Amino acid sequence: MKPIAILASLFALAVYSIPSAKAADSLYEAGLKAYKAGDYARASDSFELALKTNQKDPTLWYYDALCFHQLKNWPKAASRYKTIANYFPQTAAGKAAIDALKKLDPSFVPPSGSATTAVAGAAGASGPAASSTSGSVGLTGRSETDSAAAKINAKSISDAELDKEMATLPDSAYFYFKKGPSGHMEVDLMVNGHPVKALFDTGASAFFYADQLKEAGLDLNRAKTGPAASGWAGVKVDTTVIPATITLGTLTRKLDIRMQETTSGMSKNLIGQDIVRGYQYEIDDKGGRVDLKKATALKASDINPLYDIPLIKLGPKDAIKFSVNNNFATAIIDTGAASTIFSNAAAAQLRIEPTGETVRMVGVGGALTMQKAYVNIRIGGMLRENFPVLIGGSGLCALGQDLMDGWRYKVDREHNLLRFYH
């Protein structure tokens, strides 16, 4: 591949040396020819077509951004620049895109480190600000305060204690789930030797209803007062905490579980981050199976920026940065949410317009009415156009089961990646 000189932007005369595209060569050459002739609209058409078959080359993204820049289509130019900046930050094109964005959008926050080796930071100016104390979304709009979860699961905060526990656990494990009527992941557990049904919910920790556990035969006399839990409705509910031995599939581990006294709301027990902590987990949505594995070696050449998305840690939860209507946002990966949810604040910041349709949601702490909207969501190489989402509540944004439907994906915590398989 021979270097080519690229004019960085309308703002400066800086010249960058960037390798030419590996694939879609004819479209690339046609686009380059039109660009040099000043026919930026035709050039963009060629680059857009080339990107449909090859999204791995930052040069294609960069020339496409330059075309929109020259055409004074600032939103599309900024969108392309942000794609390069977030997924190819260490390339010459990525650095040029970051320079252009600093001038187009002074509030833009460049990603820290390489997108393939480091965890990305919080959402940029065009995405919602995320707070680790604002709560994380669980099933149908629940949220659990991270500060409360941290108190319950104090052992998970200590790397040394987690390493000690992991040394006693198997290198790999698995469990099966079946999809409920709303797409939730229903699993069968053993809690202190008693069969209990629950939902696998990576947006929650371990939240159970005491009356259901008693009905299953558990002795809850050792339960102690725990921190309150709250949901999107903003109503706090009292909880108690008890140590328990939980078996899910082929994995057994000891956890502190939080309980609400009586069943209300969705009436579904939840098992999530507590059971998978320390493991990478791979979800086969079609096959109905979750595989858990300890850290494994991964070569840099195995990482694909289109299908390997950098993880962001929001408290104990896994989150990613993604594009909503060409703006970057941050959301947690929530297997317990049937729908993809945006908080009111995030929706306002992302200029998501509700349709007027409403949906009644019930969860921990009560019920609330959410509004429906349709957006374009891009996560790496996955694009969902005119995709239905819900707006409401005060928790973080959550990527639900509807968005992940039909995909096989892994949360690779060793390398801080959400990895899609296609």
Question: Please, could you describe this protein's structure?
Answer:
The protein is an alpha+beta fold and 422 residues long. It has helices at 25-36, 40-53, 58-70, 74-87, 92-104, 146-152, 154-157, 159-166, 210-215, 273-276, 344-349, 401-404; strands at 3-7, 15-19, 136-137, 142-144, 172-176, 178-179, 185-191, 194-200, 206-209, 224-231, 236-248, 251-260, 270-271, 280-284, 289-293, 308-314, 317-324, 327-333, 341-342, 354-363, 366-379, 382-391, 398-399, 408-412, 417-421. It has twelve helices and 25 strands. The strands form three sheets. Strands 5, 14, 15, 16, 17, 18, 19, 20, 21, 22, 23, 24 and 25 form a 13-stranded mixed beta sheet that branches. A six-stranded mixed barrel has the order 7-8-13-9-12-11. It has a two-stranded antiparallel ribbon with strand order 1-2. Helix 1 packs antiparallel against helix 2 and helix 3 (58-70) packs antiparallel against helix 4. The longest helix is centred in the N-terminal third of the chain and has 14 residues, at 40-53. The two termini are 28 Å apart. The model is unreliable at 1-23 and 113-157 (pLDDT under 50).
